[in-house]
Design brief:
single chain; about 230 residues; alpha+beta; Alpha-Beta Plaits; 8-stranded antiparallel barrel; 7 helices
Length: about 230
């Protein structure tokens, strides 16, 4: 069964932050021929915990889609790349997830295949990704702070971080929620979120977009000193 892993990597020192930035380019050669890996993206992040166009040079993300959990285990256990990340980073947190549903494409591909049915009582992870049209960049980012207001202090939200391949233009979000009810309350009760969707559809802000939901079932490491999956 296909699984997806998302690894958050944090660097504190200036030297290691620069190394992390370089690995956005140099890690490809160690990932491209990894056995059992069907899709991956090396991602930077935005400042803070929300959606922000300004880079956070201390946090990077590795998203990977695997043919099986065994393939993922083999990589995290014996990969030279993971050893390098572990040695250089101050925190490395990996979340194992099974895909519930996905729509849209990522660089022209549909990487996530349905693996499980939704269990509404378990945590839910959501990944959204979009390539924003150049002529809509200013208006898109101007509305972002308003669209995120419902996330501030949201009791159902465990963690969220803006991630992406190209700052400002190719952006994604990762969010982890306590359960499906928390996701539903945000999606349907947030006027700001609903307005963002309306504007997106009306103005056609995106050249490409993807929305995927996952059921996280396992984690390794810590993030901000905690295991996000047990919060």
């Amino acid at each position: 069964m296909q699984i997806t892993t998302l690894s958050l990597i944090k660097y504190n020192s200036l030297r290691n932050k620069f190394w992390g930035l370089k690995m956005m380019q140099f890690a490809h050669k160690e990932l491209v021929n990894t056995k059992g890996l069907t899709f991956y993206r090396l991602l930077g992040s935005g400042r803070g915990k929300g959606f922000n166009p300004f880079p956070d040079w201390s946090v990077y993300c590795l998203l990977q889609v695997w043919e099986s959990e065994d393939a993922a285990h083999a990589f995290f256990k014996s990969s030279d790349l993971i050893k390098k990340y572990t040695d250089r980073s101050d925190e490395l947190f990996s979340l194992y997830m099974k895909n519930i549903s996905a729509g849209g494409t990522w660089v022209g591909k549909t990487p996530f295949k349905k693996g499980v049915n939704l269990d509404p009582e378990l945590p839910i992870a959501v990944i959204t990704r979009a390539t924003i049209k150049w002529n809509w960049l200013l208006r898109f980012w101007k509305y972002v702070p308003t669209s995120q207001e419902a996330l501030i202090g949201n009791e159902g939200l465990v963690y969220t971080k803006g991630i992406g391949e190209v700052p400002i233009v190719q952006m994604a979000t990762f969010s982890l929620w306590k359960n499906f009810e928390a996701v539903k309350q945000f999606a349907y009760n947030s006027k700001q979120h609903q307005e963002a969707i309306r504007r997106t559809r009306k103005n056609e802000w995106y050249r490409e977009e993807l929305f995927a939901r996952f059921q996280p079932y396992k984690s390794t490491g810590t993030w901000e000193g905690k295991d996000l999956l047990t919060l």
